Structures are given as C-alpha cells and as structure tokens.
C-alpha cells in the first residue's frame, strides 16, 4: 500500500537531511505508529506521502502511484486516496459539522445526492449523529477531532494519515479517538499515525516505526513506545 | 463541476472583503472610463480629420492693388496666377473670391462682433481659393507645390495653408487623447495591483478552506475558480459602471461642452451610438484583464 525506497529529503536551509535513506513498507490494512522526537522527520515523512513535498532521492509509492514522479495535475488523484487528520483539527469554523464533512465531497465534485446520503453515515460512524447542525466551536476538542476524522474518511480513502491526532486531547478523550481510528482501520483502511503519546502506543501494541535524526532506528511489530523514553 | 458550490464560494468571498471589493470595482471603473474616453477621443479625431480633409484649401491672398483693380480675375496678373494653378496636376479646382465676396463672408463669420463693423471691403484681400487633389490620402504634396509656386510671385501677398491652422486643433485633440490614455494607463496599473492584491487577500482569508480543499484532493480548477470568478465579476461590474459613466458623461458634459462647435459642423458630434458601442467593448476588456491578472496572481503568489 505504501512503499518508501531509500528516501532522502534535504531542505535547502539545513545541512542534515530531514530523512536519510528511509525504506519502509506498509501493507494494506496495517496500523503503524510513527514515533520519534521532534525534528526526527515524522512530519516530513507524512508530507512526502501527501506530495506536499518531493524527496531529494529515492522513490515513494502509494497504492499504484509513483508519488515522487507524479505530475502536478495528478496530485489530486493521489490525495483523494489519502485521508488526513491533524493535531489542530483544521475545521472550517463558519460551517456546521455536516457542512465541514460535506465540503470535502463537494470540492471533489460529488453530487448533492451522494453528499446527502454519505455524510450522515460517516457522522454516525464517528459517533456524532444528531450533531450535524452544530458549529465546531460548540463542540469539545474530542468531538471536533471526530468531525475531522469524519471529513478525512468520508470519501473512503485507502490510507488515513494522522499527525499527532491526540496531541491536544486529554487521555480519556485520546483513548476514544484511538478506538475510532481502530474501527476505521478494521474497515480495511491503512492507518499511519505520528505520535509522541507513550501510553497510546503502549496500549495499542501495533507496529512501531521509530525515526531519529531522519533515520529509521526501529521497525518492530506489536511494539511499545520504548524503554526509558 | 458543481456550479452551486463555486457560486456560493464566490458570494461569500465578495461579501467577506466588501470594502476591498468596492475599491477594486471603482478603480477598475475609473481606469476603464478613461480608456473609453480615450477611445471616443480617437474616434472624434478621426471623424474630424475626415470631415476636414475635403474642405481644406490653400488660399492665395492677393496684394492690395491687384485686389482692388480686379473684380473677376481677368487682368493679366491674376489671370496668370490662376492659369498656373489650374495647370498643376495637384490642383483640383480654383475659385476667385473678390473683395466684395470676401467682405460678405467676413460679415457672416463675425456677425454681431465689433470687427464686422470696422472692416471695409477695400481692406480685405481678394483670394484664390485652391482645392487640392489628394495623393496617397493626403494633400501635403499639393499644398507644398502651391506654396512654392505662389510665394513671392508678383501680385501675391501671402499663401495661407488652412491645414496649418487645423493642425493646431488636431494637435490639441491628440494631446487630449494622449493625456487620457496616459492617465488611463496609470490608473490601470493601480487597478491591476488592486485586483492582484485583492486576490491575494481573498486567498489568505480563505487559506483554511483552500488548505482543506488541497488535502482532500480538489483539482486546481476547484480551488482557483472561485477566486478567478470573483476577479472577473468585479472586472465586469467595473466595466458596466464605466459604461454608465461614459453615457452620463456624454449627456452631462460633452454635449454642453461641444454643443456650439458640433452644431456648426466644426467637429462631428459624439453620438450616443458611439458611446454605447465603446461601453460595450469595455465589458470584455474588463473581464479579460481582471481574469488574466487573477490567474497570474494565483500562479505566482498563491499556493492553491
């Protein structure tokens, strides 16, 4: 589903590569934690998958698409296969919950009838049925992140990328979000989640890819965050 | 493409930056108004030139003694000049205007003014009025030939080329035109920058939306079209205002300003048809300029 082959990313302003010969393969339906300290390359990793940036060397495949060589006009095709969730939710504050989710479908040209059918379904999946007409600021942080997840998932992406999705949430709410991501993972969606949260990684016991200074220092199935960290 | 979506985005965009939108519309309107004025000036100048080209003549004023002595150009000096002129291939026709006729025309020209009462037939010269043949669309060569042939001849006082007089009028009109275009240009640069700036501000205020659109895989068209449509709408509204301004301007200023000279046939009147035609041209110009500016801005400055 996702394959990185000796990917190196240099930024012009830095002498040290943000990613250094990283090779990782993620199978369809896997759940992978991407861990490591700040500046270890987690965000660069996710940015490259989304083709927000192109690698300096190496190649990246997401499904059948060669991401690094993808022409600009085909980038939307890639991004329609990838859902994205962030620490800061990135909801549109002038739209309702339902409007936020619908927006993701409208802008890729889905018909109004599809939107009317699919939005309530996905809101139910994330546990927000009945809150479609609320505004984002009326919701708790956990609920806002659910809206963000609903928006990321509404087009049924093959891959869900989550960048510190629990970073702004308390432990209990974080657990709820993790349960939701797990449920989404069980539908066959590949999930890659960058995180600092020890307890979450430890309790989930999933594959862990650890980055340090742009290198993969650990890639272990059913792992924990790590001793002494 | 979901039209309802684009239209909704456009209308929120325009309302969100309402002061900026108004400024953009007004600046566009003023610059297009000037472009329109310039175009009308060009049209009037062309029409005036055409109007005059077959009226203009070279006048050969005769000396006092010849003028007084000869009432019908039959005496040797005048007749000699007349035949020289008539034999030139560059001369179309020559008419003789004696002192009485000159006096009558003078009275008509300055009717009601004190000079008319002061003038006497004897003080006015008789003239040979020479109509020229056009060569390559101009009577330049003919005028030069007549001047050369007549100047300093016995019996000739002065040679007056009417085109010299009219040239001053054309210079003036040309100056008006150039000034209007120069102002229009400056104004247009301001309008372009304002459009570019508004598109940037618009994109900035909607950066979250645009960010989400890019992330979920919206195509360039979806992300850019609302901004382009906004720019084009303001361009069109500006052009329409400019057109209205031109029409109002015609009735409010041009008509009263040019009323006297236009009625006398000195210059052709600025017709409503001309004004409306020019106004109609401004609309696609406004739309195109705004659209292209918006597009270039998005390409260069805004990551959408």
From TrEMBL, chain A:
Q: Which Pfam families does this UniProt record tie to the protein?
A: ABC_tran
Give any Gene Ontology cellular component.
Answer: plasma membrane
* One BP annotation, GO: cell division
Q: How does it sit in the membrane?
A: Peripheral membrane protein
Molecular function via GO: ATP binding; ATP hydrolysis activity; transmembrane transporter activity
- Key words, A-Z: ATP-binding, Cell cycle, Cell division, Cell membrane, Membrane, Nucleotide-binding
* Entry keyword annotation includes Repressor: no
Nucleotide-binding among the record's keywords? yes
Q: Where in the cell is it found?
A: Cell membrane
Q: Which SUPFAM superfamilies does the record match to this protein?
A: P-loop containing nucleoside triphosphate hydrolases (SSF52540)
Where does the record place the ABC transporter domain? 2-227
Q: Which domain of life is it from?
A: Bacteria
Q: What is the first-listed, main subcellular location in coarse terms?
A: membrane
Q: How does it assemble?
A: Homodimer. Forms a membrane-associated complex with FtsX.
Functional summary from the UniProt entry: Part of the ABC transporter FtsEX involved in cellular division. Has ATPase activity.
**What family does this chain come from, according to its entry?**
Belongs to the ABC transporter superfamily.
How is this protein named in the record? Cell division ATP-binding protein FtsE
User: Which classification does the entry list for the species?
Assistant: Bacteria, Bacillati, Actinomycetota, Actinomycetes, Pseudonocardiales
State which gene encodes it: ftsE
UniProtKB/TrEMBL annotation, chain B:
UniProt keyword terms in alphabetical order:
Cell cycle, Cell division, Cell membrane, Membrane, Transmembrane, Transmembrane helix
Enumerate the spans annotated as ABC3 transporter permease C-terminal domain: 182-294
GO BP annotations, alphabetical order: cell division
Protein name listed in UniProt: Cell division protein FtsX
Q: Member of which family?
A: Belongs to the ABC-4 integral membrane protein family. FtsX subfamily.
**CC terms in the record's Gene Ontology section:** plasma membrane
Entry's localization field = Cell membrane
Q: Key word Cell division present in the record?
A: yes
Subunit details for this protein?
Forms a membrane-associated complex with FtsE.
According to its record, how does it sit in the membrane? Multi-pass membrane protein
Its annotated function is as follows: Part of the ABC transporter FtsEX involved in cellular division.
**Pfam families noted in UniProt:** FtsX, FtsX_ECD
